[in-house]
# Entry
Amino acid sequence: MSKEGLKALIFLFYLVTIGFVVTGLVFGFYYPNYDSELDLGSTFNHTVGGDAYNYIIMAGRGLLWIGMAIVTAIIGAALNICYFIVGKVEVDHSKKTQTNEDKAEIKSEI
# Structure
């Protein structure tokens, strides 16, 4: 994989991480007012009848999204390390190539 492709993949993983964090915070903290008798308001995060159960379900869903964000951030960090290793190998390879060319020039002069 080229350095440009790896850099794009790193950016994609970090972008997905940000999306997962925002989604986790919304699922974890947003609990709109809903009146079941009048059927008014949003039913988002109203899974069961009791508020306490809904809060527990919301916390679990929020943690799930945050956990997925942590996993994608770790993958992005690992790819970032690979990106710098690939860059280091390319620099070392170019130095070796230049050194071999210099040796060839010195031998041809002798």
The beta strands are 34-35, 40-41. The first helix runs from residue 3 to 29. The CA atoms of residues 9 and 30 lie 31 Å apart. The two ends are 41 Å apart (CA to CA).
